[in-house]
Amino acid sequence: MAISSSSNLAKEEQKLALKLLIPAFLILIIIALYPLGQVFYTSFTNREFASSTETEFVGLDNYKALLSVTVKELPPVIDEETGEQAVDEETGEAVFERPIRVLPRDPHLYRPSFEFSFFGNKYVVGARTPDFIRAVWNTLLFTFFSVFFETVLGLIVALVVNSEFKGRGAMRAVMLVPWAVITVVSARMWEWMFEPTRAGLFNMLGDRFGLIDGSFAFLSNNALQLPAIIAVDVWKTTPFMALLILAGLQMIPGELYEAAEVDGASKLRQFFNITLPLLKPSLAVALIFRTLDALRVFDVFQVMLSQKRYSMASFNYFQLISARQMGMASAIGVIIFIIIFAFAILYMKSLGVDTE
């Protein structure tokens, strides 16, 4: 009888819990699932933003236009006089056929996204929407390097402020200043420091100390744009990672370190055998939060680079506001959602978040 009554009580508690969750489910449906469903539906149409043009259902056309990619090998240009591959007189590099002549034009025009060399051969990646393919690549590179540096530096900062030293409280407060600065404000601040003239902080310091000859156009040079954006994000977001990791460090019992010292374990061995294994759940949560946030980066790219270089989110903004292609922008939003969802599942499975 006791077992039966406890079982009935458990069922009643489950029913009560479900009833209490109904308002939360309704709010979730209203503010999340319904708008998400609208975006999915709009992505299958040619709807224009702020236009009276009649909307038509186009099926997968938007997705085909965004994701249609082809890779073609560029044939070498043959010198008519020597019968060998032509060489550029200024650079001394081998000359290959122009990508536009190699990429397909019918039934859809493919334009070059980027080129690469492999075992002496040169290839071009063509796409119907090359800006979007470059935006995906920019976002993935930004995510990988920014999250890597933020995690490493955040771990170092967290280990430092977790140790005993005079002024530790003030240090913990100061380290949060970059994270507290509004992203747009910090982007404008760094934009001034990256100015291509001597008015820019880095060019001024480099010129004064004789480190550079001339000046660097950080935000105009294709090779420097992404490193500059990554540096800005690392400066701002490292404190956030340090705070999450510090919370995990605070939960590790001090008795473990005392026992390790009694056993003669060095600080390095304590780190790899105690700190890192017990810090894994906190690191996993920090990596998930930061990676998902980096994949949808918008503000830094939009403020500092505008249309010079896109992230996925800033290209989505361009398609919606400037090009007014709401159907295409919705398809980009769906693709971003799928990529972020895939990364979240990958992280949870690989880092064992669901089992910790």
Q: How is this structure best described in words?
A:
With 356 residues, this protein is mainly alpha-helical. Among the domains are: 60 residues, no CATH class; 166 residues, MetI-like (MetI-like fold). 63% of the residues lie in helices and 6% in strands. It is built from 14 helices and 3 strands. Helix 4 runs parallel beside helix 9, helix 4 crosses helix 13 and helix 13 packs antiparallel against helix 14. The protein is globular, with a radius of gyration of 27 Å.
Number of strands: 3
Q: Can you summarize the main beta sheet?
A: 3 strands, antiparallel
Overall pLDDT confidence: 86
Order of helices and strands: HHEHEEHHHHHHHHHHH
Shape: globular
Supply the CATH architecture of the domain at 131-182 and 238-351. Orthogonal Bundle
CATH structural fold name of the domain at 131-182 and 238-351: MetI-like fold
| The CATH top-level class label of the domain at 131-182 and 238-351 | Mainly Alpha
CATH superfamily of the domain at 131-182 and 238-351: MetI-like
